[in-house]
Amino acid sequence: MKNKIGLILSGGMDSTCLAWWLKPEVAITIDYGQKAAKAEFDASSLICSTLGIEHHLIKVDCRSLGSGDMAGTASDTHAPASDWWPYRNQLLITLASMKAISLDISKLLIGSVKSDEIHKDGTFPFIEKISELLQLQEGSLIVEAPAIEMSTSSLIEKSGIPIELLLLTHSCHKDIVPCNNCRGCNKHNEILEQLGQY
Q: In what pathway does it function (predicted)?
């Protein structure tokens, strides 16, 4: 019987806070061809090792389908921001679900927060609809975004995550080494400054 909770873990601040706060049994990290994939996997591995979470990596090269900072190309004309990758959350949830069904996972968590609503796939209606879609299919997986109404700062406070673990995260959209010149790095640095780490 499926009863485990799984987490799509990017190694960034938001999904790492969910890992600490909700202690899922399984985490799934996805290399879909994004430029920062290796750093995201390395950060996720450290986090899972620290928390004793079973960790799985999925590799599917979709870079030719991407756009913007994460793919290292010009942004698509539909992009609301430079880091937009077409249908990214739909892709990640689908790939993670394909793995989750074999791991006795009944609920899959994604680390969307309030600021992600700039993207339509970072909104509550999207999460609600994709969860409904998965429940119509074999496996009846439920998708939830527990922090979707929270800011990253609120999530950090709610989770109680130690700063030492937060410092292991990787948020850069452009490279495996922080570029300090993308939306991911800007958010990461702003949060650390708020926490007195700069």
A: Purine metabolism
